[in-house]
Specification:
Number of domains of chain A: 2
Shape of chain A: flat
Radius of gyration of chain A: 19 Å
Number of strands of chain A: 2
Number of helices of chain A: 5
CATH architecture of the largest domain in chain A: Orthogonal Bundle
GO molecular function, one term (chains A, B): DNA binding
Protein name (chains A, B): MerR family transcriptional regulator
Largest sheet of chain A: 2 strands, antiparallel
Strand content of chain A: under 5%
Keywords (chains A, B): DNA-binding
Strand order of the largest sheet of chain A: 1-2
Organism (chains A, B): Streptomyces antioxidans
CATH topology of the largest domain in chain A: Multidrug-efflux Transporter Regulator, Chain: A, Domain 2
Oligomer: homodimer
Pfam family, one (chains A, B): MerR_1
Chain lengths: 121, 121
DNA sequence: CTTGAATCTGACATGGATGGCAAGTTTTAC
DNA sequence: GTAAAACTTGCCATCCATGTCAGATTCAAG
C-alpha cells in the first residue's frame, strides 16, 4: 500500500509517516519512481509507534527499542544491551508515574463532572 | 513561604510557578516589596496542577477546572457549566485512551527488559 | 497523450511548558 | 551599612512531533 492508504488506515498523517522514516522508525520499499510502498505489517508498526510516542518516549528511544521487540515486523531480531535496558527501566518508572498521575487526574475530572450532574446535592 | 521554598518542596521550578500565576492557575500574596508569599495550600495545589499537566490538559482547561474542584485551596467554590463538563468529558476519554496506551507500552518495555535479562531463553 | 490525483523533497511555522539570561530591587545576615 | 542571596519582570531560546506550503515528479485512468 502507499502512504495515503497507510495514513488513512492508521489515522497518522502522511507527514508523520515520512518523519518516522527519517527518524529510522520504519522503512519502506520504493516504486521505480520513488514512491513509498508499505507492506501489511506497517499498520501495526505505526500503531505501536504511536503508542510509544503517547507514552512519552522520544524517537531515538523508540528507534532503539523497536528492533528488540518481537513480532514488530518479522523477526525478534536483537536483544537489548545493558545501556538500553537501563534506559528502558527509567522509562518504565516514568510510565508508572504517569499512569498514577492520570488515574488521579481522571478521578478529579469525574468528581467535577459528577458534581455538575447532581446540581442540588 | 516564598517562591524558592515552594519550588524546593514541589520540585517545580520558580520559573514555572510564575508561569502558573500568569496563566491564572494560582495566586500569591505579595510582601510590601513585591515578593510572592505562598500559604501552605500552595504545595498541594502545585502538585495537583502538575498532575493535570501530566494528564495532557492545557493551562486554560486547568484554569477552568480548578475552581470546580473541592479542597483545591479552600472552598468547593463553583460548579462546572455545561460547556466545561462537555470539554472535561472529552478530556476524560482522552485520558482513558492514554492510560490504555501506557499500559500497552509498559508491557512492551517489560518484554524487552525481561528478554534481555533472560539471555539464554 | 493528457489530465488530475497522489506523492516526492525541503523549508518554515506552531504550540506550550520550560530553561536561561539580564538588569534591577528586596530581603537577610553580619 | 554593606554584601550576598533571593526575588522581580521581561524577553528570547528550546524541544519535538506535527502542520503547512511550494514546486516538481509520478502514477492511474480515460
Amino acid at each position: 500500500m502507499r502512504i495515503g492508504e497507510l495514513a488513512r488506515r492508521t489515522g497518522v498523517s502522511g507527514r508523520s509517516l515520512r518523519y518516522y522514516e527519517k527518524q529510522g522508525l520504519m522503512t519502506a520499499e520504493r516504486t521505480p519512481g520513488g514512491h513509498r510502498e508499505y507492506g501489511e505489517g506497517a499498520v501495526d508498526r505505526v500503531i505501536r509507534i504511536q503508542e510509544l510516542f503517547a507514552a512519552g518516549l522520544c524517537s531515538e528511544k523508540i528507534a532503539q527499542l523497536l528492533p528488540c521487540m518481537r513480532d514488530s515486523d518479522g523477526g525478534p531480531s536483537r536483544t537489548a544491551n545493558g545501556q538500553l535496558v537501563s534506559d528502558l527501566t527509567v522509562e518504565r518508572e516514568r510510565i508508572d508515574h504517569m499512569i498514577a498521575d492520570l488515574l488521579r487526574s481522571r478521578e478529579v475530572l469525574d468528581e467535577v463532572i459528577e458534581a455538575a450532574s447532581a446540581p442540588s446535592e
